[in-house]
């Protein structure tokens, strides 16, 4: 009886130490709160950590930033490029869920043009030919009845990166640069705005 009590007490102490030390806390719980912070620096740190974390739940958090955050949608796009490239290298022939999900953002006519254009850029940077259909749709994107110039341009350039109907275009982030690495310094995506003609 005394041995059982000693074992139970030891288990309790070990559990308490793990909880107090943060070992038992799911990082996604902390990051899903941090990504909602009013502080842009805190949100950016959360994006970088989500990009490096090997957990499929990170993709949904990054997609939410890509389609809603005026300040950090570009950082989320870079993190999704990393995730998409890692999915491309995964064994098997499963569809790339990052490409599929980012393609839905590109196709969503209710989203602001800058979010859709950044989605097109990310699809091109992932480098998967699975993105061709979504990108072809993006070349005819509209905002209401007007052409969505930024989305169309980003989609066309992304298709060029994939070698679709052109001689090709260089990737902004070299192919071997993100996948499978713990990234500490992240590149910023390019400015996708279309110059206004006078």
From the structure above, extract its key features.
198 residues, mainly alpha, 9 helices, 2 strands
Report what the structure shows.
The chain has 198 residues and is mostly helical. The protein is built from nine helices and two strands. The chain has helices spanning 2-21, 27-34, 40-52, 57-68, 73-89, 97-107, 113-126, 132-138, 149-161; strands spanning 142-143, 146-147. Helix 3 (40-52) runs parallel beside helix 5 (73-89) and helix 5 packs parallel to helix 7.
In short:
With 198 residues, the protein is mainly α.
What is the count of helical runs?
9
Mean pLDDT over the full residue set: 86
Structural class assignment: mainly alpha
Helix and strand run: HHHHHHHHEEH
Proportion of residues in β-strands:
under 5%
Instruction: Indicate the radius of gyration in whole angstroms.
Output: 21 Å
Q: In what order do the strands lie side by side in the largest sheet?
A: 1-2
End-to-end Cα distance:
88 Å
Report the major sheet. 2 strands, antiparallel
Q: Ranges with pLDDT <50 over ≥5 residues?
A: none
Spatial shape: globular
Q: What level of helicity do the residues show?
A: 55-70%
């Amino acid at each position: 009886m005394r041995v059982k009590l000693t074992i139970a007490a030891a288990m309790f102490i070990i559990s308490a130490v793990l909880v107090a030390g943060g070992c038992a806390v799911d990082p996604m719980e902390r990051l899903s709160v941090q990504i909602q912070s009013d502080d842009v620096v805190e949100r950016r740190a959360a994006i970088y950590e989500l990009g490096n974390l090997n957990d499929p739940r990170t993709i949904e958090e990054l997609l939410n930033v890509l389609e809603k955050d005026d300040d950090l949608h570009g950082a989320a796009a870079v993190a999704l490029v990393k995730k998409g490239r890692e999915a491309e290298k995964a064994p098997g022939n499963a569809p790339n869920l990052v490409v599929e999900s980012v393609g839905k953002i590109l196709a969503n006519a209710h989203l602001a043009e800058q979010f859709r254009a950044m989605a097109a850029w990310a699809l091109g940077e992932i480098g998967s030919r699975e993105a061709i259909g979504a990108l072809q749709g993006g070349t005819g994107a509209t905002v209401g009845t007007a052409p969505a110039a930024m989305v169309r341009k980003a989609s066309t350039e992304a298709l060029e990166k994939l070698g679709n109907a052109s001689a090709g275009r260089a990737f902004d982030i070299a192919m071997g640069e993100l996948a499978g690495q713990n990234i500490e310094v992240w590149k910023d995506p390019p400015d996708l705005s279309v110059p206004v003609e006078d």
